[in-house]
Structure formats: structure tokens, C-alpha cells
Amino acid sequence: MAAIFHYNPDRPFRASPELYLCYWGKEACAPLHSFGPGVRDVYKIHFVHEGKGIVRVEDGETLTLTAGQAFIAYPERVVFYQADAAQPWVYSWIAFCGDQAGEILARTRATPEQPVFPMDTRLMPKLYELLNEAEENTATRDLRLRALLYEFFSVMVEQAPVSAPGRAAVQVQAKDAYVHRCLDFLHSHYGEEISVGQLAAIVGLDRKYLSAIFKQATGYPPQRYLLQYRMERACGLLKTGRFAIGEVARSVGYQDALLFSKMFKKTIGVPPSAYRDNL
């Protein structure tokens, strides 16, 4: 997958905004794909969904990152990062600026010298998709993009508080990396037929063990998580008012519109037609 960039089409309300999302994107990197050594003019956070690579900051050590970790490129600070030759990473990113950016990051354990922190399993793995969805609604786009950015920071402060030990930021358990690989696959292929056995084969784990660690990390077994995610995406499509129920059903992995309607009502509480009509 070539790099996909989305630029915020809404300019900040004032010349020096408190917090502003500049752009976001995602890329499945080629082996040894790299940036730098160089500097960014805004804050840029990369979220590693699959594979691995290295990050080296100015006057700092070289850190190896795997799925389930994220790192920050600070503005005007030299950074180098590179995808692994054998298992190049898949990552997404957000870039932001503003008077509050440094103050908020100071509430986390991430620093220019130790820019790595652990991802959560609820928001960060699907932040790219959520931003894309928010971008589509021009009437509320600016508010929704800003809300997602603030929600991300609230999760980051909880996930990597400043009081936590610094070295823990660069450690990730193998099982967490497996879960994040599964999440990335589910978020990219939710419109296709997916089984737990297929997920287990992709990450090379026993299906029972995978289900156990996935539920421990997300609160849901894989199929339940997939159902919830499909219905979230369906809600987003229905909110646009542009698509028929059958089109929405097929877009989120259901060839049978009646089965989709049944599962939608069971999950959301109302049929998809009523959900759309009541917006």
C-alpha cells in the first residue's frame, strides 16, 4: 500500500491555534523505507500496526519498535526511522501543531529523548479510519476532527502517564503485538468474510489462544469485536444518507441484507432503516 495522505481542509480559527490536526495517513512500508535523519515542522505520531522497524533520535539510542507501539517525531528535533528489511512495518500517523500540543505531551512519559509509548487497543488502532469517516461529513467535519484529536490525547495520557517508568515505554509483550496485527487486519478487511481460524493463521497462533489474548486486550472475542466494528462502520455510512441498506450491508461484509438488518438491530437497538430515518 502506497502512502495515503489526508490533509485537514479546514484551516484553524486563528493564526496560533491551541491544537490543530494538520494531516493524517497510513502506509505499508517497503523494506528499509526510511525518513531522515531530518526534522519535522510539526508533531507527528506514528502508530505501528504490523511489522517492525527502528527509531533513532538526536543524541539518543536506537530503539526497535513492533506492532502495538507508537513514536513521536518532535518539531525541530532530528529523527531517523526505518522499516525492517524482512518485516517492514505498516503504520498510520497523525500530525498536529498548536500552543497546547507541548503542554499535553508533557503530561505523558514520552519525551524527545524517549519518544516511544504503547498503543491502546480501543482508539489508536482505528484512529485512521475514524478520521476518514469524520472527514466525509462537511457540516461537522471541523468539530469531529478536533474531537477525535482531543479524545486521542486523553487516551494517550491515560495509556502513558508521566508517572509511569520510562523504560516501560519501549517494551511490548509479544501477545500485544499479535493483537495489534489482528486489529489492523480486521480494520482493513471488515468488508470481507473473516474467521477466527483465518486470523490465527495470519499471526501463526492457536485459535483458542488467540481468542483468549484478544479478549483480554479488547474486552471482546474476535468475532464480537468484528461485529461491533462492522456496525460502527455501518452507522457511519447510514449517517450520510447516500446509500441503500443493501449497499451498506455489502460494504461491511454482509451479502444478505436481511441478516445485516437483524444483526444491526441486535447490536444497535433499532433497524438500520429506522436509524437512518431518525438522524
Strand order, sheet with most strands: 1-2-9-4-7-10
Number of strands: 10
Count up the domains.
Answer: 2
* Helical segment count: 10
Radius of gyration: 19 Å
CATH superfamily grouping of the largest domain = Regulatory protein AraC
Range of helix content: 40-55%
Cα distance spanning the termini:
35 Å
Q: Report the major sheet.
A: 6 strands, antiparallel
- CATH topology category name of the largest domain: Jelly Rolls
CATH C-level class of the largest domain: Mainly Beta
Tell me, briefly, the overall form.
Answer: globular
CATH architecture of the largest domain: Sandwich
Average pLDDT for all residues: 89
| Strand percentage | 15-25%
List low-pLDDT spans.
166-171
Q: Tell me the structural class.
A: alpha+beta
Give the H and E element order: EEEEEEEEEHEHHHHHHHHH
Explain what you see.
The protein has ten helices and ten strands. The chain is of the alpha+beta class and 279 residues long. The protein has two domains: 4-171, Jelly Rolls (Sandwich), CATH 2.60.120; 178-277, Arc Repressor Mutant, subunit A, CATH 1.10.10. α2 packs antiparallel against α3 and α4 (174-189) crosses α6. The longest helix is centred in the middle third of the chain and has 19 residues, at 141-159. The model is unreliable at 166-171 (pLDDT under 50). InterPro entries: AraC-bd, AraC_XylS_family_regulators, Homeodomain-like_sf, HTH-like, HTH_AraC, HTH_AraC-typ_CS, Tscrpt_reg_AraC-type_HTH. Residues 180-278 form the HTH araC/xylS-type domain. GO terms for molecular function: DNA-binding transcription factor activity; sequence-specific DNA binding.
